[in-house]
Amino acid sequence: MNAISTPPDPNPILRGLKDRQRSTVEYVFRRLYLDKEAAHRFLVADEVGLGKTLVARGVIARTINHLWDKTDRIDILYICSNANIARQNINRLNVTGQSNFALASRITLLPIRLRELTADKSKRLNFVSFTPGTSFELGQNLGTVDERVLLYWLLGEAWDLKGKAPLNVLQGNAYKDNFRYWVGEFDRKQIDESLANEFVETVQRRVDEERRQGRKSIRTRFDDLCERFKRHRKHLPGHDRWDRRMIVGELRELLATTCLTALEPDLIILDEFQRFKHLLDGTDQASGLARGLFEYPGAKTLLLSATPYKMYTLPEEPTEDDHYADFLRTLRFLETGSPEAGQMEEVLHTYRDELLRLGDGGDTRELVATKRVLEARLRSVMVRTERLAVSNDRDGMLREVPSGETRLEARDLEEYVFVQKVSRVLGQGDVLEYWKSAPYLLNFMDAYRLKKALHEAVVTPGDGQEVASLLSEGQNLLLPWEDVQGYSELDPANARLRSLLAQTTDVGAWRLLWAPPSMPYYQLEGAFADPALEGFTKRLVFSSWVVVPKVIATMLSYEAERQMIGLFEQEPENTQEARQRHRPLLRFAYTEGRLAGMPVLGLLYPSTTLARECDPLLAVGMDGKSEDSPGLEEVLEWARSRIELLLREVTSQAGGTGTEDEAWYWAAPILLDLRCDPEATLAWLRDPELAAAWSGEARER
Fold first, then answer.
1. What is the chain's alpha carbon radius of gyration, rounded to the nearest angstrom?
2. Contact between 287 and 280 (Cβ < 8 Å)
3. 163, 183, 587, 649: which is deepest, by most CB within 10 A?
């Protein structure tokens, strides 16, 4: 994050918003900073797709401009449940125009990132992003290798760590040699000294407190663990693994608690906070860490969520799903610090009583007055824009497209009668709602009480005769495994699934590697140019039943695979033996002890040079019209010419004689990256965990 000498001008940012978004920004900013009784926390609950992130961007711009001359340093924290979503949204929240706007980190890694916040006194603005799962909900787990390496050096001098035992304890599930390499390569100078000292003091306070309580201190327990880990062992007993997780988890918690003191948040943005709402008022360790941020003196909190509390729930539903209680919890958090905090329940009771009196023909003045109080209280801490309200004809910007393939057939009804009979014999309830949502219920309903009861009846001698008789009679209504093994077409056996298949696999959507672009850069070819697929888009299926995703994934994948295999084999077989006979199209093979087929690496290697230099937008221009766009072959020829120029720089000093080595085809992209971006490429190639990452092994634990 580079230093900026002047605050970003909010006006261009606000001009880029729609009127309703701009109005929301101004109202939120006024409630947080300008009103006499300003709010400390505010909720933007706009419906999905109406631009809550853009509203937050506007609030950020207004906040920075407002605080610029009032404080020496402005810290904005962005907390989102998912790191991938956070990366996307951070680009939208960037109000500076700088490419390295945000510092994405874990709270526990602040000792090595703090200098980026404090070392440069000219740096007035800091934007830090976290996810709750990696910064608050530490639990009893080992965290990342980077955290454990940092813990090793933080504890090294304070606890006089020596020998291999502490390394074995903190190694976690990393490879021994890799962990020792990271410890050795770690630059201790990057640790913030004041934060390191504060961490040591925090740990010592925990040790003293545990000793006063007559408990084994964390220091004693760590030393005991080191005694057990003197010798490196590949296979650890379960109790050793558990004790190590506990110790490392506690140390990470203490480190996180210490690091929170280094943050000085001015504005905290909680994006889709309903996914981690327990942090707002919980009593566990994670909630305590989060409250340390929310309750920082002077900090403002902006919450974003289209569904901030449970929608309407029925009395018979689980108590944890009570919409009324969830609404009050959310409101209590929003009103924290307000003189009226905690009084909303009383106002709601009054409103309810007055509503019930309407039937008696009584005076409505008290009802109207209470309604106005409720509206004022809610508007002081939250706003919501709904889709119906932003279109002139109030159609919600939606278009209803009826499906002509939702056909109910006789076999579908026969299955319902069959499964209902089985359910009655087993003493289970009505299966109508299940049957409307999924076919082949007795095959796919693994975790349901009906399937469990069926299994118990079948395996219990003497008790399952009636069920067995029913299953025999309805054999043709179960999933036909002979047809599956022969790659035969399966009856969808469900009107909704029949419609979904007709819209996806039956039109050949399986031939698309990804959804067709809505604004293609060049003229499409192949499956992407098929008129039946040009307008193909994603299908989003909602269901309350766990069985539905399994059915959809199985049936659609099978049908796509069936059609695909049918292009290559006359009488295909779908058995384990037949699958083993299929030779993979892309594979690395060994020949005389060496990897062969290495050109496949050229398809997998993420070359930054090729991505940058062969971006199709460079070929067609940002303002290219679809009717004037070039063909695919033209774009490929353009890319070839650019690559040839780049390769000349790489091969200028190489000899031009001899047989062409096939290694050239996979080595060329790497050589291009080494020439154009050597530092990042070498860092990537030298990562000792690179092979593990590519093979799917995580470095996180």
1. 31
2. yes
3. 183
Burial state string for 467-484 with b = 16 or more CB within 10 A and e = fewer than 16: beebbeebeebbbeeeee
Given a cut of 90, is residue 418 above it in pLDDT? yes
Q: Cα separation of 150 and 199, whole Å?
A: 12
According to DSSP, the residues that pair with 265 across neighbouring strands are 75
In this predicted model, what pLDDT tens digit does every residue of 376-389 receive, in sequence order? 888 988 998 887 76
pLDDT digits (tens, 9 = 90+) for 21-49: 999 999 999 999 998 888 898 999 888 88
Residue 303, φ and ψ in degrees, nearest 5: -100, 135
Q: Nearest to residue 306, comparing CAs of 496, 503, 45?
A: 45
**Range(s) of the chain covered by CATH 3.40.50.10810:** 10-137+264-304
Residue closest to 113 by CA, chosen among 208, 255, 17: 255
Nearest CA among 215, 212, 218 for reference residue 252? 218
Contact between 61 and 10 under an 8 Å Cβ cutoff? The reply is: yes
Q: CA-to-CA distance for 396 and 490, rounded, in angstroms?
A: 38
Cβ neighbours of residue 577 closer than 8 Å, sequence gap 6 or more: none
- List Cβ<8 Å contacts ≥24 apart for 285-288: 285/138, 285/253, 286/132, 286/136, 286/137, 286/138, 286/139, 287/136
